[in-house]
Amino acid sequence: MSNSDTSHTLTQTVEALSEPESLRGLYHEHHEGNPLPSGKTLEEIVEISRAILFPGYYGNPTVNIHSVKYQIGVYVQRLYQLLADQIEAGLCFGAAEACDDTRLRREKSESLATEMIARLPYIRKMLATDVVAAYNGDPAAESYGEVISCYPVIKALSNYRLAHELYLLGVPLIPRMLTEMAHSETGIDIHPAAQIGSHFTIDHGTGVVIGATCIIGSHVKLYQGVTLGAKSFPLDADGNPIKGIPRHPILEDNVIVYSNATILGRITIGEGCVVGANIWVTEDMEPNTKKVKTLS
User: Fold this and answer.
1) Helices in the chain by DSSP H: which ranges?
2) Residue 200 near residue 218 (C-beta atoms within 8 A)
3) Any residues with CB less than 8 A from the CB of 205 and at least 6 apart, and which?
4) Bridge partners (DSSP) listed for residue 229
5) Which residues contact residue 76 at a Cβ distance below 8 angstroms, ignoring those fewer than 6 apart?
6) Contact 179, 214 (CB under 8 A)
7) I want to staple 247 with a disulfide (CB 3.0 to 4.6 A). Which of 71, 211, 230, 276 is the partner?
């Protein structure tokens, strides 16, 4: 192919890729000085948050009881700055009109970042219960430190519990980015809108999916490959899925769901229930009952 033919082909390709019709739904128009939230910066936010929540296991490895207050202070200040910037970018993504008033947008992002920082003690308290649940639920675990350092569920839950609080604060996009980062890191997919109580754990974890409208009580344990999903998607008059309706399961306290079980729809798995491996569940289960696959 001659140089002129190559140039013509490249030009035609650029024209085709720039057609408004081909960009429909795939193009985000940046307002001047207001880019999307940065994946790289959000990775730093996760690293700093983990260092605050689990000092010595993440971040500065030489921290001790005498320096921990100083270290946390440094991390919190840095986290606040990064959060305020990223929340501001998220607000612009959520609504174009949010970018119109720079001063009000900045004030809102700083207020949300401050509120998020204030929720860190609560997040650590919840994660502490998750560490206990993971340790008590696995005979192979030799210490809390091993659980914090090695277990994918703690990495996934640290992202989820941060993301969930941001979701409750109404921050657009960023909560989903944080949980998808954990999904890529651990294979555990938890939507930030899901509601999860204390002492939650997932053994192994790979392939677990927890949908947006799930409600999970306390002292619940899942195994790898569990799906808490939707059975169907009600459609509107135009044939499009209706957004925001409860469509995922409710798991009450002290439920155990074994590997590769699939629980679908807005059903309730009662307190103390056990769902066996490789089972499909699409109907309510009364408290303290079991559903297992029997050998023929």
Assistant:
1) 3-18, 20-23, 39-53, 68-94, 102-118, 120-136, 144-150, 152-168, 174-186
2) yes
3) 151, 152, 153, 156, 186, 187, 188, 224
4) 264
5) 52, 117, 120
6) no
7) 230
284 by Cβ neighbours in 10 Å (0-12 / 13-18 / 19+) ranks as: middle
pLDDT given at position 31? 52
Dihedrals phi, psi of 249, to nearest 5 degrees: -70, 160
Bridge partners of 274, per DSSP, are 256, 290
pTM, two decimal places: 0.88
So what's the pLDDT on residue 173? Answer: 93
Structure tokens, 126: 């919840």
Token reading at 21: 């019709």
The helix (H) or strand (E) run that includes residue 209 is strand 209-210
Query: Residue 202 is inside which H or E element, if any?
Result: strand 201-203
Stretches where the chain sits below pLDDT 70 are: 1, 23, 25-35, 94-100, 295-296
